[in-house]
Amino acid sequence: MASNGEKIKANDLYIKKITENSRFKWYDKVPLPEERVKMDMRLDLEEIQFVWKSVNRLTDSSRKILVDYFQHLFSVKNMLWALRLKIYYKMTNEEIVKKLFYVSEQPSETDPICKYAFEVLNKEIDNYEHWKKWRFSSFLNFYEEGNIWSIDPVWVEQKFRFGEVKKARQIFHQNPMTYASLAMFFVLKEQEVDCIRAATEALRLNASREEALYASGTQSGNI
User: Residues of 44-70 as b/e, b for ≥16 C-beta within 10 angstroms?
Assistant: First the structure.
């Protein structure tokens, strides 16, 4: 039976084999617990920047479609990340900005994918008046006069995911035999895997069928 050391070495070799000869070759081992967040953030940042540069190099009609799609997608993910850091980790605005993803030289209000994140930094998380005219106010969790309320990033993300799936499907079907349809094919497949993973994890935690469907983003047959 393999020892823990042998298993770690085998896993390192497996990861190295996956990433060798790619832009992610630096990710060549199983990160230590204290390294995991830093390495995963670097991986996410490099993936985002690679996708952004790739779609901007296109010269056909798919360019604008994909630039608009990924700009919105990355902007929303950045905004949700900022909300989580603000609510769950109690970070200051300065700390949050340093951890945002970006596609220019650094995170800033003028970066193509940072605008939404900067918009939420100075909003009070438990003051509905600060959010009711927000660009994504239709994504907010329910508010009832007189009751304690605080914005829920999980609720907002689920609402966004429903719309994201619909948009990806529209682009896929409306632009046959183009780079746009090919990109959306992979986006939809990635969403399906995410749904399966989320539903499986929910069921493992003894969630009901309805709770598992909601957690996976497939509520009301969205995917």
Answer: eeeebbebbeebeebeeebeebbeebb
Name 4's Cβ contacts closer than 8 Å, sequence gap at least 6. none
Q: Which long-range contacts (CB under 8 A, 24 or more apart) does 83-86 make?
A: 83/120, 83/125, 83/151, 83/153, 83/156, 84/153, 86/120, 86/121, 86/125
Residue pLDDT, tens place only, 133-179: 999 999 999 999 889 999 999 899 988 988 898 999 999 999 999 99
The amino acid occupying position 167 is K
Q: For the packed helices 179-204 and 209-216, what is the interaxial angle rounded to 10 degrees? A: 150
Q: Give the span between the Cα atoms of 44 and 47, in whole angstroms.
A: 5
Residue the block writes with tokens 């980790």? 89
Q: What is the pTM of this model?
A: 0.86
Residue 138, φ and ψ in degrees, nearest 5:
-70, -15
Is residue 168 a contact partner of residue 188, using CB atoms and an 8 Å limit? yes
Mean pLDDT of 16-31: 89
